Amino acid sequence: MSESKTVTIRVPAETYEQIREACGDLGEAFNFNQFVNHSLHSTLDIINHEEDQIPVPRFAMMARFMKNYKSATFNLPPLPNNGGTTNGGSES
User: Fold this and answer.
1) 30: number of Cβ within 10 Å
2) Which of 25, 38, 41, 49 could bridge across to 59 with cysteines, CB 3.0–4.6 Å?
3) pLDDT tens digits, one per residue of 12-54
4) Where do the domains of the chain lie?
């Protein structure tokens, strides 16, 4: 495990509520601390970026995708019934 430090930050109550709401929308994938930690890391990545185009943080893209996630996006049609099995599993 890497060495870590504890940091206390103050944010406006509105910002805090927005972060809590975003974490709630993302389900169990992010808690408040993870969200803030990823955000800070992404900010440093952008500040230290040397290329001409500034990248959109992967964390933000993933969080946006998760927020807009619809279960139908990944639903697979059922496989044809083949000798007592569906979707590759046994019905026993």
Assistant:
1) 21
2) 38
3) 999 899 888 888 877 777 788 888 888 888 888 888 888 888 8
4) 32-68
